[in-house]
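Recap slide: 2-oxoglutarate (2OG) and Fe(II)-dependent oxygenase superfamily protein, sequence and predicted structure.
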Amino acid sequence: MESRGASPATAAHPCRLLPEFLSLDLCKELEFIHRSCATVGYRTSVLSTTLAHLSATGCSHLLLPFVKVHEQLKEAVQLVQKRFYWVA
């Protein structure tokens, strides 16, 4: 992916893309949770799902996929940090 005309703010805070970070099955599971538990967000055409809502409404078992994502993301960030500090 090519970066064209990146602003100074973008250069100061680069984004990292993690291709295939989440499996297709996990994405479908998260989409199902969102579609089945979402409430109307700040606009009528926007749906919102929050972790607090899931846990407060007796749907705490639906938080488990998010724990999995959190652990995967934590490991990915630690790997990037390790590479950064190893080079620096």
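The two ends are 25 Å apart (CA to CA).
The chain has four helices and two strands.
(End of recap.)
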